[in-house]
Amino acid sequence: MKKILIGLLTTSFISCSALAADIYLTYPNKLNPTSLMHALNYRQSTKNFSNTPVDDQTLSSLLWAAYGINRTTGERTIPTAMNHKELSLYVIKKEGAYFYDANSHALRQITPNDLTGIFQTQEYMKNVPLILVWTSTNKNYGAMHAGSSYQNVSLFVAAHEMGAVVRGFFDKEKIKADLKLNPNDEVLISMAVGYPQENSDTPEKDENNTQESPTTPPAPTPTLSADKEIAPSKTTEHTNDQPIPSSTMNHQTNAPTAEAKPTETASTPTTEAKPTEPASTPTTEVKPTEPASTPTTEAKPTETAPAPTPTTEAKPTKPSITPSQSQK
Predict the structure, then answer these.
(1) How many angstroms separate the CA atoms of 150 and 66, rounded?
(2) Model pTM?
(3) For 24-206, CATH number?
(4) Rg from Cα positions in the chain
(5) Which residues contact 70 (CB under 8 A, 6 or more apart)?
(6) DSSP category for residue 76
(7) Domain limits of the chain?
(8) What is the C-alpha separation between 269 and 259, in angstroms, rounded?
(9) β-bridge pairing 87-93 and 130-136
C-alpha cells in the first residue's frame, strides 16, 4: 500500500509540475476600440524599452493576433499561401521558453532556462521582457508567413501603446538547439516586445502629426474663395462686352460650360443673372440689321437699268413704218 501511495504521489507531482510548466492563456480581448488607422499611424520600431513586464491578458491577445485561430475551420489571423501552416511561434521569457499552441491557445514549455541572453547582442535588448521567435519547415512560404505574423504584432503593439522591433541579429543555431527544433526547422526572425521608456518623445511627435492632419482638409476653403473672386471678373467681362452683342452671346454660352465643374459656384451665376440685361441691349441693337435692308434698297438701281429704255424706243420704229406706208 505504501508503494502504491508513493507511486500515486509521484505521478500526481509530475503531472502537477507539467501543468505548472504550461501556461493556459486567458481568452483574448477582441473588443479593443482602437481603430486600424490609429494603429497604422502609431506603428514604429522601438529601441528604448523599459523593464515593465507584459501581463498575461496582454500576452494572450498579442499571441492570438500574431498567429491565433479566428474561425471554426481552423484558419489563422494571417493569410497563408495555399493554407500552409508550417509556421511555428515561440515565446522567450526569463521564466523559460514556450511554444505557442494555437489550437488550445496555450504556451507549452520547452525549457525553464532563461534564453534571453542569446538575443542581447545589443544594449537596448537587456530590458526587453518578451521575445518572439518564428520558425518554419516551409522553404517557399515560411518567411512570407512570418512577415505577416509580425506585422500583426506591430499593429497590436501600436494599438496598445507598446513597443516592438524586428531583429535578426542573434545566434540562430544556438537558439535552434535550445528550442530542440527538428533539423529541417529553420529559425527565421525574432521580435522584441515590451513597453517604451517614459522619457521617450516619439508619442509626442505622433500627436503633433495627428494634430496637423486636420489642418490639411480645410484646403478646399481657399478654392471656394478663389472661385468667388473669379465670378465677379466674369461679370466685368460681360459689362465690357455690352457694345458687341455677338461676343456677349458667346460669353453666356461658354460661362455655364466653364463653370460646370465647380458645382459649388453654381449659385454665383444665378445671382449674376443680371448680365442677361445686356441681352436686352442686343435686342435694341437689332436695328443694325436694318442696314441689311439698305442693300436691298440699293438694289433699286438695278430697276433703273437702261434695259427698259430700249424697249420704249422700239415703239417709235412703228411710226417709222407708218410714214413709209403713207408715202405709198
Answers:
(1) 6
(2) 0.58
(3) 3.40.109.10
(4) 47
(5) 64, 76, 77
(6) B
(7) 24-206
(8) 9
(9) antiparallel
